């Protein structure tokens, strides 16, 4: 452990040495010389120790300064690392948020697409059945065209529908509207085929009485009065409570 001396302490020691030399005469010459030499050696040693302490202090201070600079550098590096880490975390958080939103959007989109593919229940002519979205869309499009009065286009659409969806719950009703479109375009023979097909496939169908009456109308347009009478008579017998039967009776009366 090094002892540290201030300048005042060193001056005090030097004064003590001078005072000691003043009293050297009180001793014998040999003893005085020995005492002086001893004091000189002590002073020199004190100087050397003082120089070493000062040098050591300088070295210690320099080392401490270097240590502080290194510590400051490490702190700045750590701050940079923390800032970089914070920026990376923020970027990762944003990427995660974007990914979650994209996942939600994809799920919603998939759900919407599946909803468009799922069958829905409809009721047509008193019958409830399930249809695919595309099937429902095609039928309603054909019927919408029919109602605009574009019977040629409606005929094509209903024909295509029956071919595309032969087992559809709409099929018999589509036959009815197809026959009407053909009647409107004066394609009476084809109309008769489709009206009779409807009745043959389901005589209890809600449109069956109207289909039979439409057959009779087509026969009258084709100048087949005999056939029309037979058809009207059968209609009255098969569906006596229907509105079509009332119309058939009136038509028969006008044919006599």
Topology at a glance:
Blueprint: H1 7-22, H2 29-117, E1 120-124, E2 127-131, H3 133-147, H4 151-164, H5 171-184, H6 188-201, H7 208-221, H8 225-238, H9 243-255
Antiparallel strand pairs: 1-2
Helix pairs in contact: 1-2, 3-4, 4-5, 5-6, 6-7, 7-8, 7-9, 8-9
Molecular shape: rod-shaped
* Beta-strand percentage range: under 5%
Q: What gyration radius follows from the Cα positions, in whole Å?
A: 59 Å
Query: Remind me, CATH topology of the largest domain?
Result: Serine Threonine Protein Phosphatase 5, Tetratricopeptide repeat
Major beta-sheet overview: 2 strands, antiparallel
Task: Count the DSSP helices.
Answer: 9
Summarize the structure.
This protein is mainly alpha-helical. It has helices at 7-22, 29-117, 133-147, 151-164, 171-184, 188-201, 208-221, 225-238, 243-255, and strands spanning 120-124, 127-131. The protein folds into two domains: 7-110; 120-255, Tetratricopeptide repeat domain (Serine Threonine Protein Phosphatase 5, Tetratricopeptide repeat), CATH 1.25.40.
Please explain how this structure is put together.
The chain has two domains: 7-110; 120-255, Alpha Horseshoe (Serine Threonine Protein Phosphatase 5, Tetratricopeptide repeat). Residues 17-21 and 23-27 have low confidence and may be disordered. The longest helix is centred in the N-terminal third of the chain and has 89 residues, at 29-117. It contains nine helices and two strands; from the N terminus they run ααββααααααα. α8 runs antiparallel to α9 (243-255). It is rod-shaped, with a radius of gyration of 59 Å. The protein has helices spanning 7-22, 29-117, 133-147, 151-164, 171-184, 188-201, 208-221, 225-238, 243-255; strands at residues 120-124, 127-131. A hairpin with a 2-residue loop joins β1 and β2. By secondary structure, it is mainly alpha-helical. A two-stranded antiparallel ribbon has the order 1-2. The relative contact order is 0.04. It starts with 6 loop residues before the first helix and ends with a helix.
């Amino acid at each position: 452990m090094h002892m540290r001396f201030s300048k005042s302490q060193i001056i005090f020691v030097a004064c003590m040495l001078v005072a000691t030399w003043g009293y050297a005469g009180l001793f014998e010459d040999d003893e005085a010389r020995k005492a002086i030499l001893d004091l000189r050696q002590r002073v020199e040693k004190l100087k050397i120790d003082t120089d070493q302490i000062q040098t050591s202090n300088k070295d210690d201070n320099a080392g401490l300064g270097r240590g502080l600079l290194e510590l400051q550098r490490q702190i700045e590096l750590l701050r940079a690392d923390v800032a970089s880490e914070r920026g990376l975390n923020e970027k990762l958080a944003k990427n995660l948020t974007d990914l979650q939103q994209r996942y939600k959007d994809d799920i919603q989109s998939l759900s919407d697409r599946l909803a468009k593919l799922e069958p829905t229940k409809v009721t047509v002519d008193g019958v409830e059945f399930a249809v695919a979205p595309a099937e429902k869309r095609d039928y309603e499009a054909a019927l919408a065209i029919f109602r605009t009065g574009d019977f040629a286009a409606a005929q094509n659409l209903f024909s295509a529908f029956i071919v595309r969806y032969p087992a559809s719950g709409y099929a018999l009703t589509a036959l009815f509207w197809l026959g009407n479109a053909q009647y409107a375009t004066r394609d009476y023979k084809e109309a008769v085929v489709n009206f009779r097909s409807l009745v043959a496939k389901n005589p209890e169908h809600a449109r069956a009485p109207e289909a039979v009456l439409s057959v009779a109308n087509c026969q009258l347009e084709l100048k087949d009065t005999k056939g029309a009478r037979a058809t009207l008579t059968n209609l009255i017998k098969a569906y006596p409570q229907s509105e079509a039967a009332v119309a058939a009776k009136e038509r028969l009366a006008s044919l006599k």
